[in-house]
Amino acid sequence: MATAKIIVVEKNEGEKIAYEVSGTKIIFGDDELMVNIKSRERDEEVTLDICKDTQDGLTVGVNTEAREYVAQVTIPARRYEIVDTGEKDENDNPITERKPLPFDMTKCTLTLWALI
Known about the structure:
Number of domains: 1
Oligomer: single chain
Largest sheet: 5 strands, mixed
Number of strands: 10
């Protein structure tokens, strides 16, 4: 298994899929599937299901070809900070705006299931 800057949870006993974390990407298997986690971040929590299909390929999402759950990636909702724009409104109150905080891979969770 790769050492990663991501939270890893092993759901059950047994051999798990090989993975590697590289920056904001997770590569599963022998370079079979790469997912850019940063590009999947949204204003709400996102969960990605990684499954093995009937042809032993890896897919993102559960579909009719999926036969085995191998991993799940949970990406927390995008976080923001409130910053002062330096401007004032008509009542002389400071005007603020939401600024997204940088993506933080260490806040994401990779849950692994044993391979069948």
